[in-house]
Design a protein that fits this description.
GO terms for molecular function: fructose-bisphosphate aldolase activity; zinc ion binding. By secondary structure, the protein is α/β, with parallel strands linked by helices. 48% of the residues lie in helices and 18% in strands. The longest helix has 23 residues. The protein binds 1,3-dihydroxyacetonephosphate (13P). 1,3-dihydroxyacetonephosphate (13P) binds next to strand 3, strand 11 and helix 10.
Length: 287
Amino acid sequence: MLVSAKEMLTKAKAGHYAVGQFNINNLEWTKSILLTAQELNSPVILGVSEGAGKYMTGYKTVVGMVNGMLEELNITVPVALHLDHGSYEGCLKCIEAGFSSIMFDGSHYPIEENVAKTKELVAICNEKGMSLEAEVGSIGGEEDGVVGMGEVADPNECKAIADLGVTMLAAGIGNIHGKYPENWKGLSFETLDAIQQLTGDMPLVLHGGTGIPADMIKKAISLGVAKINVNTECQLAFADATRKYIEAGKDLEGKGFDPRKLLAPGAEAIKATVKEKMELFGSVGKA
Ligand code: 13P
């Protein structure tokens, strides 16, 4: 059964480790992540972006697929199904469809509007026993070839949002989605420290987990980060393994590639990436 992310993140923050959020795009990714979490006895969060939700034909399909896998694969570790960077409307759709957790990304609104919308969603999530992630300070990344550096959050705004009763808070600290540019200045630990001092026990979320050096990840966890999001690294591993398989030319003697065999190396590569991250984040054995 899907669970809210609240309990796993409260435990992670108290135990000084982080739970990984791995984004899913299809059946193979989902299966690989769930099997790895079970094998390593680790809690896990499956992230679904609005685009990935559309690709998989809608949130109801995603809920059906994940619930089916939990049962058929005998998954017993805590699993949360979480909307990643949701719009207000997207959040309502996921609540309706049966997700157990949502992120409302109101970081592009003026803080008053972010507060107002987050407040409404806190009330709904509390009633339904779901977890809610809010965001302050935008997280940069590549969009149309332009790499945004990511805004550093104002710790007082973080406190204002945390005080609304959200489950977890994503705060921009110089992190960006995708690969980090050569001239990246690194994470702002000063900001993270100030945010943690003002928000106390609130589990903090680090987006853009791909390409952050291990020592920075460990330091972020020591300063209150309890959830780390990873997407691009799984994409790179999946694409690389699939490309190598095709280049090796193992098709069915002119009949094309067996789709199950074609996607198997990518699925294995995702398992290896997820394992490496869970070990780094310290969530192994914490289910
Ligand atoms: P990366 O794609 O950089 O791993 O970031 C993932 C993320 O933060 C999803 O919200």
